[in-house]
Amino acid sequence: MLIRAKADIPASEIAPESAWFNRRAFVAGLAAAGLVGTARATPRYVAADGGQKELNGVSRGPFSTDEPANSYEDITTYNNFYEFGTGKEDPHRNAGNFKPQPWTMRVQGEAEMTGEFDVEGLLSGVGLEERVYRMRCVEAWSMVIPWVGVPLGEVLKRFRPTSRAKHVAFETVYRPEEMPGQKRRVLDWPYVEGLTIEEASHPLALLAVGVYGVTLPNQNGAPLRLIVPWKYGFKGIKSIVGIRFQERRPPTSWNISAPHEYGFYANVNPQVDHPRWSQASERRIGSGFSGLFARRVPTQMFNGYGEQVAHLYSGLDLRRNY
Amino acid sequence: MRVYKPLLFAACLLPLIWLGLRIAEVVEPGLGANPAEAILDELGLWALRLLLLTLCVTPAARLLKKPRLYRFRRMLGLFAFFYCMLHPLAYLLLDLQLDFAHLGEDLLKRTFITVGMGAVLLLIPLAFTSTRGWQRRLGRRWNRLHRLVYPAAILACWHFYWQVKADTAEPLVYCAILALLLGLRFWWSPLKGRLFRGG
């Protein structure tokens, strides 16, 4: 993975700030309204907070939607990342002391290659791709996000999982001194998630290292996180330090917290409601007046990725296996 | 004393003015990436805060021996009602966007909304009969009717508690305040004597 320091980027390549800060542009006049939510162009943006580095050699990957992407600002200021606090703006506010470099990942279980791996080394040689995916949160809001990452399956293959590896378990880092939200036991830390090996090997599943062409901001799960776009957002575990191949289905954090509300699969499904609210439609996130009056859109089965993933669940009662 | 009521009136409008400034992006923080949710949450929080503040008047007047405080109860109550109406109005306009079919579904399926709607419904007759004329007309029945504010406040806290995903700390603070306010009333009521007598 090639990471170039921000200082190396010619000024001409840096997008004008106004491309993200539509919110303020909006105040200046309604003319900017058309820009809202359409800021994505080429992955040449640099974060306003200055901490991000540009990712080079990013090719345009498959499965991208051409729906307008949310602004960088929306994506990096409205997050569910309870390790930094439970408010949507808490991660943006509280993630400043988190240190995503250097980063090692522990790989264990049913695989030939296990041990500690440096992330840079691990991802070298796998081409970075931009994937513009829909992200549907279980709370009935959604965004369109231009991730940069590598197919998860490509990375997992390198560990040569054995035939007993039926599931993959993931674990988030536990650093209460850098992640103030972990000081309160809102969830059972560390956050854990899991997939079946078929789900993890699916070409849609992404190990994301960046967004909008730059490295992931801390609040978005730096330095690497999971993206499974046909599932609710909470399956996309962030700041991963552990991967374990195993036969048995691994426990998952939200399922432990509220088993009748959050299942292992957590596939986006407009027909199966959350016990406390409907999942039939969603609010597409967007700041400013246009966001305020943005139409609710109907939620699609498997978040619109049914063509690619429905076969993984044939014969499975999705109402029971929510 | 004359200035206090207009002052309180202005103070009760401040949350709305502040929200207006945030919508107009005059002040930081603005409304963020999900402005509809921000407006909805803010109005709901102030509805609950003012409702609890209204319930503070009686114990405060009694404990501080300042019966003059009672004069502010009606205004606080009516402002609580005002925010309690704005909150579902924002939900209807910004969240549901006047999709009434969806409203029906929400009222059935999203139980925390059913509970919140119950609180609003209980408050309507109270706001309606808040005038001096109605107070006179209903006499002792007025007091009995206005005890509906207790179940309304319980439903409001429940509504807040129930819509939270995992972090219940904030709603629990409101629940604790309400429990304290209701506990005081129970302590002072003849009901207590009746329940514990002979034990």
Question: Can you give a write-up of this model?
Answer:
The complex is a heterodimer of chains A (322) and B (199). With 322 residues, chain A is α+β, with helices and mostly antiparallel strands. Chain A has 9 helices and 15 strands. In chain A, strand 10 and strand 11 (214-215) form a beta hairpin. Chain B has one domain. Chain B has helices spanning 4-23, 35-64, 73-95, 100-109, 111-128, 132-138, 140-145, 149-162, 169-188, 190-196. Chain B is globular, with a radius of gyration of 18 Å. The A-B interface holds A 23-24, 26-27, 70, 73-74, 77-78, 82, 86, 88-89, 139, 141, 184, 186-187, 257-258, 273, 276-278, 280-281, 283, 285-289, 291-296 and B 23-25, 29-37, 39, 94-97, 99, 102, 105-106, 109-112, 162-163, 165-167, 169.
Q: Tags for this entry?
A:
heterodimer; A: 322 residues; alpha+beta; Sulfite Oxidase, Chain A, domain 2; 15% helix; disordered N terminus; B: globular
SSE layout and pairing:
The complex is a heterodimer of chains A (322) and B (199).
Chain A: E1 3-4, H1 22-28, E2 54-55, E3 59-60, H2 72-77, H3 90-94, E4 104-109, E5 115-118, H4 119-123, E6 129-136, E7 141-151, H5 152-157, E8 167-172, E9 192-196, H6 197-201, E10 206-211, E11 214-215, E12 225-227, E13 240-246, H7 253-257, E14 281-284, H8 288-292, E15 296-298, H9 306-309
Parallel strand pairs in A: 3-6, 4-13, 7-14
Antiparallel strand pairs in A: 1-2, 4-5, 6-7, 7-10, 8-9, 8-13, 10-11, 10-12, 14-15
Chain B: H1 4-23, H2 35-64, H3 73-95, H4 100-109, H5 111-128, H6 132-138, H7 140-145, H8 149-162, H9 169-188, H10 190-196
Helix pairs in contact in B: 1-2, 2-3, 2-8, 2-9, 3-5, 4-5, 5-8, 8-9
